[in-house]
């Protein structure tokens, strides 16, 4: 990896698209982007959480071995984690692992295929895989679903399939695995925070305040947090930037109380500026379009 530019902190997440605490870290990362803007650069290394569920074992949560039993225990674990991190989780109908599909490696390789094509779309794709896995109980380790999600975010499906199935993405994933081993990132998420030649490792889910303290230490005050007032305009700008947003992400970015968050969402819904989409034990909000809009990136028109 190359060193960062002057006055830019790089945060590299060693991750897996189906890691619940990586899912739970999304609000923190979005708050960092909102508060520090171009002073922070966030990127992802695919670490491959589950090579084969039948030989994997998480003793703390009793996950591994039999796929059906693992699915039930994963759903339970995700619901418990959701109570802490606040991101939506769909536990009912969760059946990701089977004898035929025992791994999360396909999702990791799919991200690398997207990254070969376009970094911006790749990050959008990673988020979409996380949503589909955690909040929609989709079988994201199947090629059919991965292609569907790739098309949704505007990737060239033919090129995606070429890179996904013919070795280019696999090779890139193996390089990520080597980097993961080099930094001894054995649990996910693990974050490498770097400023110039200085870097430190943060293991596990971290609060925004922990990132901020580490960034201030590494930069010796060279970068500055920008507080954003929780105006309707600012909240809508946040929603438009990320398109699909869980309430906790808005709440964290703007330091809102539960009551303030509910009031903001209710107001935006009343003004028909956003739409609400139920998702498991929570929901997402997105900008509302008042008429048919055609997205040149995806080639899709929607009402």
TrEMBL record:
Gene source species:
Geotalea uraniireducens (strain Rf4)
SUPFAM superfamilies from the UniProt entry: Thioredoxin-like
Give the InterPro entries listed for this entry.
Thioredoxin-like_sf
- At the top level, the lineage of the source is Bacteria
Stored PANTHER family = GLUTATHIONE S-TRANSFERASE KAPPA
Taxonomic lineage is:
Bacteria, Pseudomonadati, Thermodesulfobacteriota, Desulfuromonadia, Geobacterales
Pfam families reported in the protein's UniProt record: Thioredoxin_5
In Swiss-Prot or TrEMBL terms, this protein is called DSBA oxidoreductase
């Amino acid at each position: 990896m190359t060193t960062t530019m002057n006055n830019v902190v790089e945060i590299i997440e060693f991750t897996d698209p189906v890691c619940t605490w990586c899912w739970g870290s999304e609000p923190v990362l979005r708050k960092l982007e909102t508060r520090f803007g171009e002073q922070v650069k966030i990127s992802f290394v695919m670490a491959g959480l589950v090579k084969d569920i039948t030989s994997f074992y998480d003793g703390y949560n009793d996950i591994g071995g039999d796929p059906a039993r693992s699915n039930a225990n994963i759903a339970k674990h995700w619901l418990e984690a959701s109570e802490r991190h606040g991101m939506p989780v769909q536990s009912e109908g969760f059946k990701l692992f089977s004898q035929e599909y025992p791994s999360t490696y396909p999702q990791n390789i799919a991200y690398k295929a997207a990254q070969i094509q376009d970094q911006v779309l790749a990050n959008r794709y990673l988020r979409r895989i996380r949503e589909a896995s955690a909040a929609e109980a989709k079988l994201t380790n199947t090629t059919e679903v991965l292609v569907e999600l790739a098309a949704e975010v505007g990737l060239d499906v033919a090129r995606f399939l070429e890179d996904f199935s013919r070795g280019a993405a696999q090779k890139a994933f193996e390089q990520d695995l080597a980097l993961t081993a080099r930094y001894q990132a054995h649990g996910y998420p693990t974050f490498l925070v770097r400023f110039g030649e200085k870097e430190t490792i943060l293991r596990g889910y971290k609060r925004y305040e922990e990132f901020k303290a580490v960034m201030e230490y590494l930069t010796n005050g060279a970068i500055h947090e920008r507080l954003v007032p929780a105006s309707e305009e600012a909240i809508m700008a946040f929603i438009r930037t990320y398109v699909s947003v869980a309430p906790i992400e808005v709440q964290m970015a703007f330091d809102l109380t539960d009551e303030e968050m509910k009031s903001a969402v209710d107001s935006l819904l009343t003004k028909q500026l956003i739409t609400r989409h139920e998702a498991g034990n929570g929901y997402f909000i997105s900008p509302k379009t008042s008429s048919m809009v055609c997205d040149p990136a995806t080639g899709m028109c929607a009402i």
